TrEMBL record, chain A:
Transmembrane annotation, as ranges: 248-275, 282-301, 307-327, 390-407, 438-458, 470-493, 505-523
Keyword Transport: yes
Gene: urtB
CDD domains: TM_PBP1_LivH_like (cd06582)
UniProt name for this protein: Urea ABC transporter permease subunit UrtB
Biological classification of the source: Bacteria, Pseudomonadati, Pseudomonadota, Alphaproteobacteria, Hyphomicrobiales
Main location class: membrane
Organism in which the protein naturally occurs: Roseibium sediminicola
UniProt-annotated location(s): Cell membrane
Family: Belongs to the binding-protein-dependent transport system permease family. LivHM subfamily.
A Pfam family matched in the record: BPD_transp_2
Keyword Transmembrane found: yes
Membrane-topology descriptor: Multi-pass membrane protein
Domain of life: Bacteria
Keyword annotations of the record: Amino-acid transport, Cell membrane, Membrane, Signal, Transmembrane, Transmembrane helix, Transport
Signal peptide (from-to): 1-24
Automatic annotation (TrEMBL), chain B:
Membrane topology: Multi-pass membrane protein
Coiled-coil intervals: none
Compartments reported by the entry: Cell membrane
A Pfam family the protein falls into: BPD_transp_2
Stored PANTHER family: HIGH-AFFINITY BRANCHED-CHAIN AMINO ACID TRANSPORT SYSTEM PERMEASE, SLR1201 PROTEIN
Keywords of this entry: Cell membrane, Membrane, Transmembrane, Transmembrane helix
Region (Disordered): 371-411
Gene label: urtC
Protein name per Swiss-Prot or TrEMBL: Urea ABC transporter permease subunit UrtC
Keyword Hydrolase in record: no
Organism: Roseibium sediminicola
Length: 540, 411
């Protein structure tokens, strides 16, 4: 009941819209007497009247039936006309049940309620179901079939059979067949029919089918019971497989978030060997850049909102990159070869940046909106995939590929690798190592800024945004192996998936603790990470 | 044997420090309890508690300095040991509340009654006895440090890697202690303490006593650290800091030395935490925050890494500044703290004490050589003080005391 109700309400509303003159199948004048008759007689009589209304097959009567089910249908004592009413102060607001136009008001004593009992409510529900099963809009038909599926109403079988005969849409047809199977299992039909129904549900293979089959198994005997048992085993297997798929998806999604946060660090820490504790703040600066861009767009060019992220991406790269270059030139270059001091100095910088952002934008969370193409979700099989997660995975992969290309295919990447591998030799070859240092650090910070744009879509944009990612990022880089971008990719994805698989058993917090402990133990075993660099570069 | 051990711990600087500490330990409680309130020499109770807090921080800084300054292990997780010691003490204080809690349960602390727990978890047993709690204050952090260090040092995790996994350790503990079902009060931690060893925890005399206890613990740990760092063991530690591989090749079991000093340091941090909790009256998971651990490191860096007096001085100075700033200019504090990190690492790598003593010995050198120049033609004798000639930053040679040395640890 409680599940079916919002859906009923929904298609009652849709039906109400459809009830406009364009799609009305019957003349309101022929329907109105039928509706007005609802006021007469006892429950038995009302039931017949409801069935008569349903028999017209006109979606226009749906609002009236819906109101009847809700107890909102009243009859005006003076002229015996029936109205949909809504309480308004001391009196009632009247609405015409067919045209849905307002029809004045009435005092409390001028109208009386048309009473219904539970049996009638069930009748109304199936009547509404069969009414909408024939609606012109396939979406409405599908919802009607789903409502019958949920209610498992044997009375809906006839209506479904009729609707199935006329149905042309393959998708809707399938839903109707499933609804029919659900209704058949709940009816007194013979064994062969029920076996067919079990087969249909078994093919359906989701949780709804599983719960129906479990109920069937408990309430029937013989062949149907056995068939239900077999179907249950089969469905449970497929559900477990889908669950695993969903977990992997969540894991990959978490992994890409980690990858985005860590990949800039993989450059500054992994390639350059600089411990940048202010890395998280670069991410935060990127997120705040997105916020500023969106604010500017909101005030000056609201039409561009869907493109705000594309505008924010290069800006975030530039802003974070510039801050990164400034940090490198101002502080870090004096500390090369002294990693522990670098760690402390950059931690100090991170405090300053946090406080600066807090002073500028305030300590509270800032609202960053999702563009339309980032919101919503779609389903594959029994998996729900939200668009923002999907785009972040795609985006993380793009950033990773782009970075790989920059490092492997451009002169700048060549210089970077040369300086990393042998600074003095590179300098002897005429590479300006200080500039390469500054630009590499700027690149790593800029990538962090880009990550901030992506993270602003799924996380709170606050001055503490970066803090939450810094430890995770270091874990990913250390786990994957310092100085190896592929290691970072594998590390991020592994940690993401492992985390999500641990969560159902251990809870989110314990899962995270397990992962941390696992990494701590892992570093004992392989102190240089999954993909350790070998050769002279390691000792340099 | 014992006396020579102690004797080694003494020199002028340590003497000054001990005299100062003795004065503080006696004068502050006396100023609070004996001097009448109107007098300008009266020390208000809140100041006693505040200074007691500083002393426990100083002890924590001392512990960090022992491993970082002398053994080159930069721990970003010492707040974890501090908090564990604090929790052990907090559990004792919780059990002392007895029926005076809001729910009046004679055994279960309030938060357990609130969570509908029926009996005390096994790990709370024994904490109604002070000696047991006191033992745990040392044992729990010590054991954790031992196990952690055993794994870390044996597989030769060094440098920043070690720093980052110590940070991960305290982060993991932070997350764990936030959970309600851990049985440590979750988010709120342990608070609302009533008395300690039968004394009312709010009373002025108890506060003064806790202050004196903190001071005493600091002095004792200082002497212990001093004795260790000036012994042969201390020399090996400094060798490990400056050239770990070479020390290993010379035949020392580097990981044993590291493990010893690491565990000892964790125990000292635990004691600091245990003295901290009754004075501030609360312990919650926030103490595990990685930021706290890094802050401790900056106290040490400000005062002077590798100088025990410097660690104490740095802790007191920075915390005094923090108290003052957060009251007067709350927005500026993080700027100031962040700036401090940068300035100290860039311009004051030896910290206050290190820089001062370096300047002092440079001055003496100049005086000695000036005397020689003014005197005869005889060649300059080796400097009277065995202290190294003060070279220009950044790389001074090895010097008389590890306390003066700030050679870069070999990475």
């Amino acid at each position: 009941m409680s599940l079916a109700r919002p859906i009923l309400l929904l298609f009652a509303l849709i039906a109400g819209v459809l009830a406009g003159p364009a799609v009305a199948q019957s003349d309101p004048d022929t329907l109105r007497p039928l509706i007005n008759e609802l006021a007469d007689g006892k429950y038995d009589q009302t039931q017949k009247q409801i069935e008569a209304l349903a028999a017209t097959g006109d979606p226009a009567v749906a609002p009236a039936l819906e109101a009847l089910g809700e107890g909102d249908l009243y009859v005006r004592k003076s002229d015996g006309l029936v109205f949909i009413t809504k309480k308004d102060g001391k009196g009632y607001k009247l609405t015409d049940p067919l045209t849905l136009e307002t029809a004045g008001e009435a005092g409390r004593r001028e109208v009386s309620k048309i009473k219904v009992n539970n049996k009638l409510r069930r009748v109304i529900r199936s009547a509404l179901g069969s009414l909408t099963l024939r609606a012109p809009d396939p979406e409405v038909r599908r919802q009607a079939a789903e409502a019958i599926f949920k209610a498992q109403d044997p009375d809906g079988i006839e209506a479904l059979d009729a609707a199935l005969a006329a149905e042309t849409d393959v998708g809707v047809r399938k839903v109707m067949e499933e609804a029919r199977a659900a209704a058949v299992l709940n009816s007194g039909m013979d064994e062969a029919q029920k076996l067919d129904a079990v087969q249909t549900l078994s093919d359906m293979g989701n949780r709804d089918a599983l719960s129906l089959l479990l109920a069937t198994q408990a309430s029937t005997e013989g062949a149907v019971r056995d068939a239900a048992g077999r179907a249950i085993v089969k469905i449970e297997k497929s559900i477990a497989a889908w669950d695993a798929a969903q977990n992997i998806w969540y894991g990959l999604s978490l992994g890409s978030v980690l990858l985005l946060a860590a990949i800039g660090l993989a450059i500054t820490f992994g390639v350059m060997g600089v411990i940048n504790m202010a890395h998280g703040e670069m991410v935060m600066i990127g997120a705040y850049t997105t916020f500023v861009v969106q604010e500017l767009i909101r005030t000056s060019a609201p039409g561009l909102f869907d493109y705000s992220l594309f505008i924010a991406l290069p800006l975030a790269f530039l802003v974070s990159g510039a801050v990164g270059v400034a940090i490198e030139r101002g502080v870090i270059r004096w500390l090369y070869g002294r990693p522990l001091e670098t760690l402390l100095a950059t931690w100090g910088i991170s405090l300053v940046l946090q406080q600066a952002v807090r002073s500028l934008f305030g300590p509270t969370n800032r609202e960053v909106g999702n563009p339309d193409w980032m919101s919503g979700a779609f389903e594959i099989g029994q998996m729900t995939i939200t668009y923002n997660r999907m785009w972040i995975i795609v985006f993380a992969m793009l950033v990773f590929t782009g970075l790989m290309l920059v490092l492997k295919k451009t002169p700048f990447g060549l210089y970077t690798r040369a300086v990393t591998q042998n600074r003095r030799m590179a300098a002897s070859m005429g590479i300006r190592t200080p500039w390469v240092d500054a630009l590499t650090f700027g690149l790593g910070s800029g990538i962090a800024g880009i990550a901030g744009v992506a993270l602003s879509q799924i996380d709170n944009v606050s001055p503490n945004l970066g803090q939450g990612y810094i430890i995770d990022s270091f874990m990913v880089v250390v786990f994957g192996g310092v100085g190896n971008l592929w290691g970072t990719l594998v590390g991020a994805m592994t940690l993401g998936v492992v985390n999500k698989f641990l969560e159902p058993y251990a809870g989110a917090v314990l899962g995270k603790i397990f992962v941390l402990v696992f990494i701590i133990l892992f570093i004992q075993k392989r102190p240089r990470g999954l993909f350790a660099l070998k050769g002279r570069a390691v000792e340099a | 044997m014992m006396s020579s051990f102690l004797f080694r711990a003494m020199d002028t600087r340590a003497g000054i420090f001990l005299a100062l500490m003795a004065a503080v330990i006696i004068l502050v409680p006396a100023g609070n309890l004996l001097v009448p309130e109107g007098s300008p020499f009266h020390v208000p109770t809140y100041a006693v508690t505040l200074m007691g807090k500083y002393l426990t921080y100083a002890l924590l800084a001392l512990a960090v300095d022992l491993v970082w300054g002398y053994c080159g292990i930069l721990s970003l997780g010492h707040a974890a040991f501090f908090a564990l010691g604090g929790y052990a003490m907090g559990m004792y204080l919780m059990r002392q509340i007895g029926t005076r809690g809001v729910y009046g349960d004679p055994i279960l602390p309030d938060f357990m009654v609130f969570l509908n727990w029926k009996e005390l978890p096994w790990y709370w047993y024994g904490f109604d006895m002070f000696w047991f709690a006191a033992l745990m204050v040392v044992l729990v952090p010590g054991l954790l440090a031992f196990v952690f260090g055993w794994f870390a040092f044996r597989s030769r995790v060094t440098g920043v890697y070690l720093s980052i996994i110590t940070q991960a350790l305290t982060y993991a503990l932070l997350l764990a202690f936030f959970r309600n079902d851990m049985g440590f009060g979750g988010n709120n931690g342990l608070t609302d303490f009533k008395d300690i060893l039968g004394f009312d925890i709010q009373a002025d005399t108890t506060r003064a006593g806790l202050f004196a206890a903190s001071g005493l613990a600091l002095v004792l740990c200082f002497l212990l650290c001093r004795a260790i760092t000036r012994s042969k063991l201390g020399k090996v530690l400094v060798a490990v800091r400056d050239a770990e591989s070479r020390t290993r090749f010379l035949g020392y079991r580097v990981e044993h030395y590291k493990l010893f000093v690491w565990t000892l340091s964790a125990m000292m941090a635990g004691i600091a935490g245990a003295l901290y909790v009754p004075q501030v009256g609360i312990i919650n998971p926030g103490e595990f925050a990685p930021a706290n651990s890094i802050e401790v490191v900056i106290w040490v860096a400000v005062g002077g890494r590798g100088t025990l007096v410097g660690a104490v001085l740095g802790a007191v100075l920075v915390n005094f500044a923090k108290t003052w700033f957060t009251a007067a200019l709350p927005d500026i504090w993080l700027f100031a703290l962040g700036g401090l990190f940068v300035v100290v690492t860039l311009f004051l790598p030896k910290g206050i004490v290190g820089t001062l003593s370096q300047g002092w010995s440079a001055l003496r050198q100049r005086k000695v050589s000036a005397d020689y120049e003014a005197g005869s033609d005889e060649p300059p004798a080796p400097p009277q003080s065995p202290s190294a000639p003060a070279k220009i930053h950044p790389k001074p040679a090895a010097s008389r005391l590890p306390a003066d040395a700030e050679a870069q640890p070999a990475e």
